[in-house]
Amino acid sequence: EAALMVPSPSQSRPPVILTQDELKKIAAYKAVEFVESGMVLGLGTGSTAKHAVDRIGELLRQGKLENIIGIPTSKMTHEQAVSLGIPLSDLDSHPIIDLAIDGADEVDPYLNLVKGRGGSLLREKMVEGACKKFVVIVDESKLVKHLGGSGLAMPVEIVPFCWKFTAQRLQLLFEDAGCVAKLRTYSENGEPFVTDNKNYIIDLYFKKDVGDLRAASDAILRLAGVVEHGMFLDMATTVIIAGELGVTMKNK
Ligand code: 5RP
């Protein structure tokens, strides 16, 4: 189910070229229209989700929303929400979330996602797995035919203990797909990137399609040393896509 929600500008007007960040903001604001007073909200992480959290803060300040409880998906989002005065809680106290809004790195035609290039995939998966509605907000550059097919990374969070061993096992698992497993590092100093949960991230790069995504997910999760991966299969209920021609909404 797809609906074009904003008509393209008329032919007579000069085309307006929007930046990627402007498109992200448009998708984020559209998603926040689903937010109602009294909701428990999953607050996503990343440059797109940041716009949504800003907007929720703004509506609270203006008194247009009340009694919101936010469940942040990262320390970064936690800090942002605190600075905006959004009341916060956690999954222990609020195990059922009404609505989560978050970005994604890839979205396939079935609304399966790759997330975690920002490094917050574990908390995102816990929070978004506990919500009744999960609205994903992206600009159109995130749309792919097959997950892992964009040439960008598929992140896997692993424990730091013997990370080379786990990276090797991951690479071997997808040998047929030409997989290369790389430890994520900080560009400044080459040190391993450390997640909010004090783990490492292995980024998997594929030369070929990984095939059955559920089988790939199960195989990754069976490896001791793996904490979680960035494939979010069958979790999104709505994807809002902002593009040059307007905003499209796809529902599960
Ligand atoms: C962080 C994520 C982000 O949602 C994803 O990386 C998209 O980021 P951005 O909105 O900055 O493009 O999964 O772990």
TrEMBL record:
EC number: 5.3.1.6
Span of the signal peptide: none
Pathway as given in its UniProt record: Carbohydrate degradation; pentose phosphate pathway; D-ribose 5-phosphate from D-ribulose 5-phosphate (non-oxidative stage): step 1/1
Domain of life per record: Eukaryota
Molecular function GO labels: ribose-5-phosphate isomerase activity
UniProt record, GO biological process: pentose-phosphate shunt, non-oxidative branch
Top EC class for this record: isomerase
Reaction(s) catalysed by this chain's protein: aldehydo-D-ribose 5-phosphate = D-ribulose 5-phosphate
Keywords: Isomerase
Family note: Belongs to the ribose 5-phosphate isomerase family.
Name of the protein described by the UniProt record: ribose-5-phosphate isomerase
Organism (species): Nyssa sinensis
Residue window of the full protein shown: 7 to 258 of 312
